Structures are given as structure tokens and as C-alpha cells.
Amino acid sequence: MERYFITYSEWVNFLGKKSQQSELMAPVLSGSFLHYQKCQGEELKQVVWSQVRPVQPVKFFFFPYHEEILPGLSEQSPRVILGVTACDLAGLQVLDRIFAQSDFKDPNYQKRRERTLIISGDCYAPIDVCFCEKVGLQPYPEKGFDLNVSALEGGFLLEVGSEKGRNFLSELTGLSEASEEQLHQQAKMRNKAKETVLQFNQPFNFPSDLPNKIQPLLLAEEWKEVWQKCVQCGSCNFICPSCACFFLEDQSRGESFEKARTWDACLFPGYARMASGVSPRPHLYERYRNRLACKYVYLPGNFGLVGCTGCGRCIDGCAGRIDKRKVLTKIFGKNPNSVIYEPAKHL
Ligand code: SF4
Ligand code: SF4
Fold first, then answer.
1. Euclidean distance between CA atoms 93 and 242, whole angstroms
2. Disulfide check for 233: which of 11, 240, 243, 319 has CB 3.0–4.6 Å away?
3. Strands 116-121 and 79-84, how do they pair?
4. Using CA atoms, how far apart are residues 120 and 202, in angstroms rounded to an integer?
């Protein structure tokens, strides 16, 4: 992989010029949290580099909460998203598989993906809800980006991940080949972040190989207890970088009609309800269990990808203060390899 060093001022000036040609979205501090914000020129000095993922996942840019899907999107102007973390890149991989690589492709999603250049970033400052290391990821991107940025003393280490990324850099002067010392600095910061995530997760005891280990436990009695503080707000679904369920509706607009798509949430009582009014999962514990099964069993089975990236947003945003790491610890009990039930035939 090509790796370059660029000074802070050269990189920010270059992005300033790029922001005149493309819409540039970047993480900026708002109160105590990072949010994506459109940045231009001098505003780029406010961008926060190599920190934890922003509050909203990057899926918001590709799969909006509500949109009219007929007629489809017209041509889109170019967009650059900065500071996408490894956990969000992994979420995007799941969305790509669903909306761009399955038999039924979503043209709006594809257009947005094509127009967008992803400049990811290392996360040097994980927070206590992060558990990427527990689901087989690291707090720094390894694939799925056009460019990756690691903040170093006095500048940035840029890694090229695609032809699109290489083209983006073609007008940037001042690049130098990354030195051994700079690569060492990057590795040091990355290892420190990994250790921090592992330390935060010491109290939790569940295997990182969740897809293989959790299926036999889907009928464990413990599921009937762990959901009890859930108030069905759906926030865990909406804030998740890989949740992709939606419903379609037609609304009349005078002489015409609107066909719209809106996010759905599998914790809602109406989720998957049939025309007869029957719900396949009438009990809340079944819907709660289904969400975790979707992440750790169904998505790996159907698409070969784990649906949870360990971003911790569903822990941070849960109105019932449920920490899913505690739930998993409870389900796996004291012995993380224990098998409570054999897999049921219908699962
Ligand atoms: S399930 Fe929770 S921790 Fe996992 S990716 Fe979704 S929001 Fe993040
Ligand atoms: S965020 Fe928490 S309370 Fe809200 S639906 Fe999800 S588990 Fe339930």
C-alpha cells in the first residue's frame, strides 16, 4: 500500500481547495460529541482528526431516514466524507452487500456511493462503549477506504486504498514517502488504541467468534430476562451503522402519489407484522433476541459479514440503559464456550 506524509497546513489547505469543487463532510465537535458537518475553507481547521466515531453513522449519507424513491435520484454532485472510522467502514460493507451487491440493487444507494470519496481515519481515542476488538475489528481501517488518514506529530500519514483515492491526491504537492519513524509512530498510536479498547472490555466475557458460538444459545432461558429495561424506542436500530430495515409506503399527493421509504426498527411491535395482524415475534424478548441474532447469525449466514462492528452506539443511545456486552456476558454465562441448547431446526 502507498503511504505518504503531508504536513498539517498543506493537507488542510488542499482540502480547502477541494471543498470548492465537492461537498466536504467532516467530524466537528458539537458540545461534547463529534458530528459530521459540511466544511469549507477555514472551517476545515475545526475538523477533529483520529478520534472516536461521530454520533451519527456514515450510513446517514447513503441510506437516509426517509426518502422519496420514485422518481429516483438524478445525477449527484461529488462528495467527500472525512474521518470515517473502521467500525463505520465495516457497517458500510454490510450496506453495500445489501443495497449494491445483491440481486436487487438500490439505484439511489449506488448513485450516492459512486459520487462519494471516503477518507477514513484512525481512532486513537476509543470511548468506554467501544468494543470493535471484541468483534474481530481494530480501531483503525484496513480496507474499504479510498484514502486513510492517521494523525502524526506535525502532519498526517496518508494511505491510498483505491484508484479514486490516488486520483484525489494527484494535485496535492508536498507529499513525501512515509519514513520508518512515521510508520513507527502510527503503529504505536494504533497499538495504544487497541489496548484501550481491550481494557474497557475486560469486565465482559463473551467470545469474539460470536457467529459460531451464539447460535446454539438462541433458545437460552436468559433471553427472557435480559431485555427487561427495553422501552422499544428503536434508537439501537436507527443509530446502528449496519441496520438496514425499511418499509415502503404510497402516499397520495393530489393527482399523483409519492412512493417513499422509511427506516423500520425490529424492536417495534409492528415490525414484520402480517396483513392478518399476526406478528412472528409478539414478545419483546423475541424481538430483542432477533436483533442480536440478525447481527451475529443471520447476516454472517446470508452475506458472510458480521452485522455488529462494535461501535457501541446502541449502548450509548439506549433509552433503557442496556449494555449489550452485559447481555452477551449473561447469555454466555461463566463459560464462554458453554452450549445451552442445540440449534433449533427452524433457526
Ligand atoms: S449493534 Fe450496536 S455496537 Fe454493533 S454496530 Fe450496531 S450500533 Fe454498533
Ligand atoms: S435502544 Fe434500548 S430501549 Fe431502545 S429499543 Fe433498543 S434496546 Fe430497547
1. 8
2. 319
3. parallel
4. 28
* Residue identifier of the C-alpha nearest atom 1 of ligand 1: 308
Tell me the per-residue pLDDT of 18-63, one tens digit each, with 9 for 90 and over.
999 999 999 999 998 999 999 999 999 999 999 999 999 999 999 9
Which of 305, 280, 269, 285 shows the shortest CA–CA distance to 218? 285
Give the integer Cα–Cα distance in Å for 225 and 285.
Answer: 8
Ligand 2 pocket, 148 CB below 6 A? Answer: no
Closest ligand to residue 131's CA: 1
Task: Name the CA radius of gyration of the chain, rounded.
Answer: 21
Strand 176-177, strand 33-38: pairing:
unpaired
Is a pLDDT exceeding 50 seen at residue 96? yes
Q: Is 57 in the pocket of ligand 1 (CB under 6 A)?
A: no
Give, using CA atoms, the residue closest to atom 6 of ligand 1: 240
Which sequence spans correspond to the domains of the chain? Answer: 3-200, 210-332
Report pTM: 0.92
Atom of ligand 1 nearest to the CA of 239: 7
